[in-house]
């Protein structure tokens, strides 16, 4: 009736050891050819960037203590 | 429906780790627990859970359609006015949702009741789609459950199909608070399904989304973010510094902004207003509703406020799981799901 398939994962698990950390792209400096300069960040402070401002998302969990198990 | 205790697989932790399910134990306590399972009849699954779920979904969409065109709804939900255009534009553009999770109360003796709708940032999907399935197959193989046992579960295939429609060959970014193993695992799983649907993807932390001077969101490699799945609530995005940039950017978000209405717990009283006495809804009211007695307000709102505390991580892990712990003023009361449902029913009886 309902059972119809086997779940196949291509990236997660031992086939791609630590898929999360391996797949996660972290911010670095300006990258190939990038030229950094100073600019105002979202909070008004001067920060070095490449014409790109970072940190404008992600502040809320520190104020709201995370969205907890199960999501929202 | 029956709850049947059963032995757990002695190697399930190893299996979980190998599958990438590294949040099976959180803060030293079981998050995954397979010492019991629930047995349903096909009628219960198809007619008492699946059909009502479809009906609740339809009611929710009807509510969004009403709220989009009625400022009163949006004010009652306390959605900041500056984001109303973003929300309504996403609705009128018919921006698609990938998934949501309805939390139902169901004991097999009465209709399923909606407890809450995790419409914006639902987790638990890896456990439901993958590890639950692995358990079924291994439990049958080890004679823990009957050979004919089955599982109403096609989440994995449906996710892949949904990505094919949503992706439209666009590059997909997935973002969230990756320091949380639960969120990171959920994102990794969704990325896996997106890739199986043929999408090119990048997974980043929400803090690593950048704003480029030309008016677009970018990833750490300066690639424009055209399509983004975010495991990060809209209500938080609205309050973040980049919130005011949302309307300017061409990024298409999953879940779409109109889901900010449905992820709001205020939809419960609004649904009850729109569909009074619907068998799949529990009575729910705003605190300032004059029709409700103070006693019932106390019963319902204290229960929901505790649930809200749990959802927001303001209560510890002891308050989640199969039991719900209600508390105020240092006095705590632990209830089963059934007792909790009765508590809400008693609130209705007080009206």
Oligomeric state of the chains present here: heterodimer
* Total beta strands of chain B: 14
**What is the CATH class designation of the domain at 154-254 in chain B?**
Alpha Beta
Which strand order do you get reading across the main beta sheet of chain A? 2-3
Continuous helix count of chain A: 2
CATH architecture of the domain at 154-254 in chain B: 3-Layer(aba) Sandwich
Give me the number of helical elements of chain B.
12
Report how far apart the termini of chain A are.
Answer: 32 Å
Give the largest chain-chain interface (CB within 8 Å).
A-B, 49 and 79 residues
Radius of gyration of chain A: 20 Å
Q: Would you give the CATH topology of the domain at 154-254 in chain B?
A: Rossmann fold
SSE pattern of chain A: HEEEEH
Q: How does the helix and strand content of chain A classify structurally?
A: alpha+beta
Strand order of the largest sheet of chain B: 8-7-11-12
Largest sheet of chain B: 4 strands, parallel
**Percent in strands of chain B:** 15-25%
């Amino acid at each position: 009736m309902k059972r119809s398939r086997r779940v196949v994962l291509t990236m997660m698990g031992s086939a791609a050891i630590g898929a999360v950390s391996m797949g996660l792209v972290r911010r670095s400096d300006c990258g190939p050819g990038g030229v950094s300069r100073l600019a105002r960040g979202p909070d008004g402070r001067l920060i070095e960037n490449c014409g790109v401002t970072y940190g404008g998302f992600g502040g809320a969990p520190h104020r709201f203590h995370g969205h907890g198990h199960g999501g929202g | 429906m029956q709850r049947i205790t059963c032995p757990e697989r002695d190697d399930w932790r190893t299996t979980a780790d190998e599958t990438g399910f590294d949040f099976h134990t959180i803060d030293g306590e079981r998050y995954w627990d397979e010492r019991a399972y629930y047995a349903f009849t096909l009628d219960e699954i198809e007619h008492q859970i699946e059909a009502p779920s479809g009906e609740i979904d339809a009611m929710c969409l009807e509510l969004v359609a009403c709220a989009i065109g009625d400022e009163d709804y949006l004010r009652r939900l306390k959605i900041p006015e500056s984001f109303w255009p973003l929300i309504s534009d996403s609705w009128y553009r018919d921006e698609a949702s990938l998934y949501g999770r309805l939390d139902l109360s169901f004991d097999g003796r009465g209709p399923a009741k909606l407890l809450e709708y995790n419409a914006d940032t639902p987790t638990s999907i890896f456990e439901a789609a993958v590890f639950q399935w692995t358990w079924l197959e291994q439990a049958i193989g080890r004679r823990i459950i009957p050979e004919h046992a089955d599982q109403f579960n096609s989440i994995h295939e449906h996710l892949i199909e949904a990505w094919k429609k949503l992706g439209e060959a666009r590059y997909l970014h997935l973002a969230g608070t990756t320091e949380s193993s639960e969120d990171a695992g959920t994102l990794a799983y969704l990325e896996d399904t997106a890739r199986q649907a043929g999408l090119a993807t990048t997974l980043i932390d929400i803090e690593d989304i950048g704003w480029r001077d030309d008016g677009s969101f970018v990833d750490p490699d300066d690639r424009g973010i055209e399509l983004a799945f975010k495991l990060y609530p809209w209500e938080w995005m609205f309050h973040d510094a980049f919130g005011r940039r949302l309307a300017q950017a061409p990024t298409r978000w999953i879940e779409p902004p109109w889901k900010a209405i449905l992820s709001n717990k205020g939809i419960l009283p609004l649904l009850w207003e729109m569909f009074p006495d619907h068998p799949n809804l529990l009575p729910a009211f705003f605190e300032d509703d004059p029709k409700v007695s103070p006693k019932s307000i106390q019963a319902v709102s204290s229960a929901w406020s505790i649930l809200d505390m749990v959802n927001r991580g303001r209560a510890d892990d002891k308050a989640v799981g199969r039991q719900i712990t209600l508390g105020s003023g240092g006095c705590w009361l632990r209830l089963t799901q059934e007792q909790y449902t009765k508590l809400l029913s008693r609130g209705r009886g007080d009206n």
